[in-house]
Design goal:
Layout lengths: L9 H11 L3 E6 L4 E4 L1 H7 L3 H4 L13 H14 L9 E6 L5 E12 L5 E10 L1 H22 L5
Antiparallel strand pairs: 1-2, 1-5, 3-4, 4-5
Length: 154
Amino acid sequence: MTEPPKEVDRDWLCRRIVEGAGDAVLFADREGIIRFWNTGASAMFGWSAAEALGRSMDLIIPERLRGRHWGGWDEVMKTGHTRYGRDILAVPASRKDGAPLSIEFTIQMVWDDEGKLLGASAIIRDVTDRFTRDRGMRKRLAELEAKARAPGSE
């Protein structure tokens, strides 16, 4: 007969799971200031938690996309709703060294016990390799289709 599982402190377990996740997990307050940054975020983006905490999410947002990002962020903070709680958002991002990334993530709105919106958390996955591979396949397919449509290709 097996023993029943031992009780594990839920808060301790949650911290261990989130901190050790290979995906990036971060939380930003209503102003878009990073307040939580796990080891997965450090590995993905190249910024340590000490460097990222207390700074704007602009750390990981390509400059050309910041206006669009902050417009959407302001709307979500105003309404408290995002469709990306379940739908996956795919966007470009930037590493500390300036290298581009392709990321996918979901967002969770974070509320306090009184119902006040505190900000949003995100669980982020680096999909750069898949994005690059898919782009190469689309390019090759377009080349093959163009070749097949060319006169004398039949």
